[in-house]
Design goal:
There is one protein chain. The chain has 75 residues and is mostly helical. The protein is built from three helices and no strands. It has a domain of 32 residues.
């Protein structure tokens, strides 16, 4: 029984894939030649993680923290 369900799901997905591929091909024909771009999600998202600080920004943070700790010690 599960094999029958799995087989029918696979056939359905293959049919859907064929329909989608035909739709994409038709849409690509509407574009001018050379305008078809391949979508790469990794390129769209950009860089992840922390951005690096420049020297001036690092100096400002340092001065701000020195003032903060000076104030904390004086309490």
């Amino acid at each position: 029984m599960p094999d029958d369900i799995l087989s029918s799901l696979i056939m359905s997905l293959k049919k859907d894939r064929e329909t989608i591929e035909r739709a994409i091909a038709l849409m690509e024909e509407l574009l001018p030649a050379g305008d078809v771009e391949i979508f790469h999600p990794a390129e769209v998202k950009g860089r992840r993680g922390r951005r690096s600080m420049g020297a001036e920004e690092r100096k400002q943070v340092s001065e701000r923290m020195k003032r903060y700790w000076r104030k904390q010690r004086s309490r």
